Amino acid sequence: MWRQAKWDEQLITEYKSTSNRVGVLIPTEKEIRENVEIKLPSKLKRAKQPELPQVSELEVIRHFIRLSQMSFGVDTGFMPLGSCTMKYNPKIEEKVSSLVSDYHPLQDFDTVQGILEMVYEMQSMLAEMTGMDQCSLQVPAGAAGELAGVLMIKKYHEDKNRRNRDEMLVADSAHGTNPASAAMGGYKVVYIRTNKEGLVDLDVLKEVTNEKTAGFMLTNPNTLGLFESEILEISKVLHSVDAKLYYDGANLNGILGVVRPGDMGFDIVHINLHKTFGVPHGGGGPGAGAICAKGEMVEYLPYPLVQKKDGKFTFDYVPSRSIGKIATFYGNIGNVARAYAYILGLGSKGLSMVGKMSTLATNYLISKLKDLRGLSLPFSDRPRKHEVVFSAKPLFNDTGVSANDIAKALIDRGFYAPTIYFPPNVEEALMIEPTETEPKEVLDSYAEAIRQIIDEAYKNPQAILNSPSKTAVSRIDQVIANHPSTVTPTYRVYRLRSEGKISHLK
Amino acid sequence: MEMHPWLPNLASIKEMLEVIGVNDIYDLFSDVPNEILLKGDFDLPYKEPLSEYEITLRLKELKSKNMKLLTPPFMGGGECPHYVPEAVKFIISRSEFYTSYTPYQPEITQGLLQALFEYQSLIAELFELEVVNASLYDWGSALAEAVMMANRINKKTSIAIPANINPYHKEVLKTWVYGKGLKIIEIPYDKYSGELDYEKAKEIISSSNDISAIYIQQPNYYGVFEEEIETITDYAKKVGAISIMGVNPLSLGLIKPPGEYEIDIAVSDGQELGLPLNYGGPLVGIMATRWDGQLVRQMPGRIVGLTKDSNGNKAFTLILQTREQFARREKATSNITTNEALMAIANAVFLSLLGKHGLKAMAEEIYARSHYTKQKLESIKGVTSAYQGDFFEEFALRFPIDYSLIHSHLLKRGILGGIQIGKSEALFCVTEVHTKKMIDTLISEIKEVIESVEAS
């Protein structure tokens, strides 16, 4: 029986300390302080010190430890979040990240040859695994990679003087990041419908692809977990008008070692190192990414890249048509080092098994779930890859228990919920991605939990509707959370509102 | 492969295939065109899996190729060396934070949500601005996001930026706004004081009716305090532009925060609040705005808010999510999803430890040490200050000889000097990690090399 810790933990700013307390000592150089006067221009002086806490080290530690006990990570339990690839994060990664922690990004290249060698190896290994020619590690996350890719496509067409290429194609089942990235690049988004099979509708694609098409952003396997088997045809259609095919790497885990985006005809690929290559998610970051390209698109990659000249590495390679810099320095190199540890720990033999084992896990889970009353498996009955999307619509119709309710009931049983209500073209969607790192027995117990929840829903739906009850809090009031008269994004707002100093968010 | 610690089901393949009802794993890939199926393994320098011990050997080998410095770098430029308290490392190493996901399921991730809310709250007090998001990638991209916010609000397309801002931020900004076709106008700075040329700023801003946003960095790239920030905010109001201020977070222990200037949007990096250098990343982009619906609705990224649960208990959840990409797709305020949450928690722990007293003490210590260093260096014959304005943490100097000679001499002694910003100019950074002894060594080494070059 699982229960989460339940601390009624006040905010750190609400700790009432009676006297001057401090959680850490600042080193002081008395001799310097006696000789240097701190005399700021008076108009620059801060009127009053910020309202920060005054607490001891113990209080800080205890406070945040209690908060951590009301959280849940891969190390706590199973997190089969579709499209997120929550695989186990090997602990050796932490040690390897120490390769970079104390080095300054603007140091002379001669003094960081070890770091640069690691980055150089990563550039070429990631290119090999995606079937691309070159990778830039500038991008701190997947979405930043998408933005880079979109800008690369834009610059490519501008170089060819094609002023009217203002449309970016996106599958209607795509991650929300694809259309958002296209819009940030100044593109009009044209959605490509999914056909009855759950794949890109080739007829629609042929119809909308024309001289206005800049590119097509696609995931393969797609968000339904299905492989776009017509991919070679899709790439022909795009390339016939010299539009570029962009690979959203969020789903790479399902095919890693089986088939490469470069061999499918993709021109640009982004990789999420915090998905496919085992970097921990950190509660929503930091992640790390790579943006990789093939052929003439290599020249558009964001700079800088590491190059090797006369046996020395330098981090100053600028592709001739580069779109520029995406991150302030080199991207999240600390996490690139973590991914490096993961790659070494598997070697090409192990990496070649990742796609096979994650796909095996998904289909094993499907076998355990597909005959359950209340669930349906929309689209074709082909094997899924990294993830599967079930619809709980039948259950909802029969009992009033929704995908969201199933999620909350799973949480009550010590499992993290799947991704829900995504992709948008499936009603009451449950999107499950088990990954290759979960033992078979965990998959069995998850399937069993879903079976029990559905059973309960038919017998006594109220019990499900009341969940979760074993977590730190029960269901959340979203109205108070978002209403202009009560919305509270910081303690400062709470404080100023109670003092009557601010009103509705207008 | 028969066994691997990260692939637990290698021994269960046959059994699992039976349950699925197929004979071979490749049956699960029957929809992949045969001609593109990979034949064989990847061609990588590492064929077989390395054991954990072997990985540490490779790590050792790589580490030996990096140079071990005697002292922390005297180098800044948007990233400065600081001591990271053990308590910070300890908390962000907690698995429940470290291996968790974006808290879309609030009931099971209350602790993570509260920690992020506290980050937002502490930054709000530091900046004296009401709304803070749960982090962006870094300062450069936060600036780019702020500029795009301004464009969405007022639909204008020119951005006025000072020439004396961090050049790396400038590069990032140029890349990010290229897609939207925004124009960047540079305002020159006063070569004597190092501050923005406010007269020129007025001229440039009033000669265009298309200024969407005006940005100012405090202190600027050369470490110099900008003393006339009100001029910028007044002018922004006058021409209907959004004012954006970039700020060094530690300097706020001493100087006026963005909120006191009625700034619309503030951006920064939390690297100086409990993060190691990380060779340039992960960092943590900070963004804060005034209590204004127009600004808040256009804010990129996630925001955590305070609410109640169904039993009336205090609870936290992600709020105002209709701004985000998963809900609004191409109409979203940004494409950002994964941000820098764990680094934001590091900031929260760091600010909690420092508290009111520690923050002021830290800012004063940095101010004093950087001033001491500059005064002492200026007393060397031929060394002069590049700019006359008062400064914090970083300062620029002019040397009587080519700076690269000084830099390479220092490196031979295991000291990383400042960033070269001209033939004989460099930008130095001094913080609480540089002891008086280290500083004095730096000074005597610089003195020595100047004297020996001038004597030859």
Automatic annotation (TrEMBL), chain A:
InterPro entries: GDC-P_C, GDC-P_N, GDC_P, PyrdxlP-dep_Trfase, PyrdxlP-dep_Trfase_major, PyrdxlP-dep_Trfase_small. GO terms for molecular function: glycine binding; glycine dehydrogenase (decarboxylating) activity; pyridoxal phosphate binding. It comes from Stygiolobus caldivivus. GO terms for biological process: glycine decarboxylation via glycine cleavage system. Gene3D superfamilies: 6.20.440.10, Aspartate Aminotransferase, domain 1, Type I PLP-dependent aspartate aminotransferase-like (Major domain). Its EC number is 1.4.4.2. It catalyses: N(6)-[(R)-lipoyl]-L-lysyl-[glycine-cleavage complex H protein] + glycine + H(+) = N(6)-[(R)-S(8)-aminomethyldihydrolipoyl]-L-lysyl-[glycine-cleavage complex H protein] + CO2. Residues 34-306 form the Glycine cleavage system P-protein N-terminal domain. GO terms for cellular component: cytosol; glycine cleavage complex. Keywords: Oxidoreductase, Pyridoxal phosphate. Residues 356-459 form the Glycine dehydrogenase C-terminal domain. Coiled coil: none annotated. Its cofactor is pyridoxal 5'-phosphate. The keyword Mitochondrion does not apply. It comes from the Archaea. This is glycine dehydrogenase (aminomethyl-transferring).
UniProtKB/TrEMBL annotation, chain B:
InterPro entries: GcvPA, GDC-P_N, GDC_P, PyrdxlP-dep_Trfase, PyrdxlP-dep_Trfase_major, PyrdxlP-dep_Trfase_small. Gene3D superfamilies: Aspartate Aminotransferase, domain 1, Type I PLP-dependent aspartate aminotransferase-like (Major domain). This is Probable glycine dehydrogenase (decarboxylating) subunit 1. Residues 12-444 form the Glycine cleavage system P-protein N-terminal domain. It comes from the Archaea. Keywords: Oxidoreductase. GO terms for biological process: glycine decarboxylation via glycine cleavage system; nucleoside metabolic process. It is an enzyme of class 1 (oxidoreductase).
